[in-house]
Amino acid sequence: MKICVIGTGYVGLVGAAVFAEFGHNVIGVDNNAKKIELIKKGKMPIYEPGLEELVAKNVKNGKLEFTTDFDRAVKKSEVIFVCVGTPSNQSGAADLSYVWSVAKSIAKSMNSYKVVVIKSTVPVGTNEEVERIILANVAKGIKFDMVSCPEFLREGYSIYDSFNADRVVIGGKTQKAIDIIKKIYAKLDCPFIECDLRSAEMIKYAANAFLATKISFINEIAQICERAGSDVVKVAEGMGYDKRIGKAFLKAGLGYGGSCFPKDVEALYRTSTDQAYDFRLLRGVMDVNEAQRTNFISKVKRVLGGSVGGKTIGCLGLAFKENTDDVRKSVSIDVVRLLRGEGAKVKVFDPIAMESSKKELGEVGIQYCREPQEVFEGVEALCILTEWEEFKAYDYAKWGKLMTKKIVFDGRNLLDPKSMEKLGFKYYGVGRGSNGWSLASTGAIFDQKHHQ
Ligand code: UGA
After folding, report:
1. Is 171 left (phi over 0), alpha (psi -120 to 50) or beta?
2. Which one of the listed residues 4, 260, 369, 383 is annotated catalytic?
3. Is the beta carbon of 85 within 6 A of some atom in ligand 1?
């Protein structure tokens, strides 16, 4: 099958490489000439395990090419995947300006029957609007079909997720177009969900919103655990064995971040209000997520005697999650900002996301450490902000001696509390009330009652 993929962000670039690996002939298109030049040189604009090798392999065997020549790419292809960004606008709704302009350009370049597939996460009704735009701009007599085929891959695991998909959702109006997309994914051994355009669009938002709800739910449980003296890690384990609940996405922590959940939850909430419906549960999900980071800062301040002003704090992890250099809407970055805002001097380290973080945080009040052990030197507390696996393997026994005070605030419940305590650390996880401390013991519950 001849395919063109418009947009070389996470979804587009990974999608192009994966389609080529499936055996199709793929052209990746982007209007950013610098990005295309970089990719052509074999350098990836994003950090994604396995991507560079997959791109190189398929470019070499002639299955994959990259270009800025939009018109040629569309003309040569039978199927056009739209994978452009849909960021939030100021009101929280999805900004669809890239989608609209790409739709117009596709229409102008179309010279024969094409299937136009929207992969970008777009609100319900967008595919129909794209269809109207193409109809209004395409040359007479040229036919096309729209398909909504949302993407479910996770950053950091996108190659694995692409070859091990849980399902492929294909929304369309004609069976002919749906069957063409099924052929493209024929190598995958998973259910194919066929539906209408509007349901496919909704599936993507509903799935992300549900996962975000799981995270906020467990974070609320964590808050209660801290007060009641229970351990949220054990609680989640005990809940997760129930197949109806499932183990995934029950990790309490600092809340969800990244380029998808915050944007998509907000956009779905906007869709509900646009339909004159108040999705109350989602409002709660967003509120809880915001509160999680301020709760963390309050805990740090409380334990350090009421303030972090003038104190040096070490932070491990800046990316919005492990295995990526992406810091968009990263809660870790927010926590560093909040600590700095409270007057702390902050030392930071991330295995991959140092450069992208510098652009977000700047240099003032932040010391960027080249090696992880530098973060430990002379700090009054260490905060773990991102769930990088390698943080578990650090030499806390040795590096802890470099700290002024051996206090760890583990915002991702990455470390084992008992082992840390054995090493002489005071350990504070999220929702780990049964591990030697609880909010009650810090006086916080008394404070709260006092303020009521
Ligand atoms: C998410 C979805 O998982 C993908 O299925 C979807 O395709 C993607 O959004 C998208 O819409 O493009 P991603 O944003 O890459 O993927 O990251 P996740 O692994 O889902 O993590 C999102 C955030 O939730 C991270 O900040 C992570 O730290 C947090 N999280 C995740 C938790 O706090 N607890 C958990 O148990 C799981």
Report:
1. beta
2. 260
3. no
* CB-based contact 294:338 (threshold 8 Å): yes
Q: Whose CA is nearest to atom 13 of ligand 1?
A: 154
- Per-residue pLDDT of 46-105, as tens digits, reads 989 999 999 999 999 999 999 999 999 999 999 999 999 998 888 878 899 999 999 999
Smallest Cα–Cα separation from 307: which of 268, 273, 338? 338
CATH architecture of 208-439: 3-Layer(aba) Sandwich (3.40)
Q: Which residues contact 354 (CB under 8 A, 6 or more apart)?
A: 318, 348, 368
Locate 80 and state its tokens.
């056009």
The protein residue with its alpha carbon nearest to ligand 1, atom 5, reads 152
Task: Find the angle CA(397)-CA(400)-CA(405) to the nearest 5 degrees.
Answer: 140
For the domain spanning 2-195, the CATH number is: 3.40.50.720
Condensed to tens digits (0 to 9), the pLDDT of residues 398-448 reads: 999 999 999 999 999 999 999 999 999 999 999 998 655 555 555 554 444
What ligand 1 atom has the least distance to the C-alpha of 121? 11
Atom 28 of ligand 1: nearest residue by CA position? 321
Report whether 438 contacts 226 (CB < 8 A).
yes
Going from N- to C-terminal start, the domains of the chain cover 2-195, 208-439
